[in-house]
Design brief:
3 domains, OB fold (Dihydrolipoamide Acetyltransferase, E2P), about 15% strand, alpha+beta, about 40% helix, about 350 residues, six-stranded mixed β-sheet, elongated
């Protein structure tokens, strides 16, 4: 975030203190973000955004949906929401996005015009297609060669997608699954248990005549069958028609004489030399972007942590993202000690 207002340290600190008290923010990260926005918008306009946030709060506040639950933003959260969107509109940058001035020329993705974009693409060649389905069929149609059933994805448990991807449209998807009769016979009794679910790995394609997404299963098992295999030490996957191949017996060799390890000097990786010069404008902007991205990533991580254990999909990925952004901030601050 490029600072547009040159403010003295005393004037800047005073503005930060006034706004922070209005927003009831006391932690280091939000205080630093307030400082960045004051240097970009100026004290007067930043205070106007505070007044807008207070007005929104007085009129019922602002909520947002996270994992099917409606959450209420704090006054500080409303301020950051308004300020971030104002900054994006004026600069064309998105959170955690541009790292150089040339990136501003890259167009923003527009979901409404995706058809034109997709039709203009030149397709590459796929070398492998694989899909995994977990669920229970309601109706199974048996034929001599195979069985056919449908599974519907009602989007109840969605994974955490990387930031930058467009919002997933709320649309249910139906898959028509074909399973060879030989494979089905090995799981048909297990899936009769209403607490069990099929675990299917296969090849997916679109059937234009049936207007359906089709999955040809090449591996079929159930959760309980897999659980019993793990208990017994059998780590093989679902049932396939491939014949098992016996592993070759390990070769027997004469015992080797133990060798004394030789200590070798370890060369530390080269480190960037800290610069005492004022940080370049693009570095200041990048730090502000990283701080905003860090706050968003931490909010996502905390939201997932509050979910029941069986719904905490993406928790590890969210934590890794927080750690990566924090490390990037630390690296910038080490390279530019004068960066605040």
């Amino acid at each position: 975030m490029l600072p547009r207002f040159e403010l003295g340290e005393e004037e800047l600190n005073s503005a930060v203190q006034i706004i922070a008290e209005k927003l009831q923010e006391t932690e280091e990260r939000p205080l630093q973000e307030i400082r960045d926005y004051i240097r970009y918008f100026g004290p007067e306009e930043a205070y106007n955004i505070v007044l807008q946030a207070l007005e929104v709060e007085a009129n019922g506040g602002m909520t947002f949906k996270r994992y099917k639950k409606m959450k209420r933003r704090t006054i500080g959260g409303i301020f950051f929401y308004i300020a971030t969107h104002r900054w994006r509109e004026e600069t064309g940058y998105s959170v955690g996005g541009a790292e150089s001035e040339s990136d501003a020329t890259i167009p923003i993705f527009d979901w409404e015009t995706r058809r034109e974009l997709i039709q203009s693409l030149q397709p590459g060649e796929v070398t492998k297609v694989q899909i995994n389905l977990i669920g229970r069929p309601v109706q199974v149609e048996e034929r001599r060669e195979c069985v056919v059933f449908s599974l519907q994805d009602k989007m109840k448990k969605l994974p955490t997608f990387p930031k930058g991807l467009p919002q997933l449209p709320q649309r249910e998807t139906v898959y028509t699954v074909y399973v060879a009769s030989k494979q089905w016979r090995k799981v048909s009794q297990a899936i009769a248990n209403p607490n069990d679910e099929l675990v299917i790995t296969g090849y997916m394609f679109y059937d234009p005549d049936a207007e359906s997404n089709v999955v040809y299963a090449n591996s079929v098992t159930t959760k309980m069958i897999d659980r019993e295999k793990r208990k017994s030490g059998d780590t093989s996957g679902g049932d396939t028609d491939a014949m098992p191949v016996a592993a070759p017996a390990p070769a027997v060799s004469a015992p080797k004489k133990p060798q004394t390890p030789v200590a070798r000097p370890v060369t530390p990786p080269p480190q960037a030399v800290p610069s005492n010069d004022p940080p370049p404008p693009e570095v200041v902007r990048r730090l502000a972007e990283l701080r905003i991205a860090e706050r968003t990533a931490r909010e996502t991580f905390e939201e997932i942590k509050q979910l029941p254990p069986d719904e905490q999909s993406g928790l590890t990925q969210a934590l890794r993202e927080v750690q990566q952004i924090t490390a990037a901030i630390k690296e910038l601050q080490q390279r530019y000690p004068r960066l605040k």
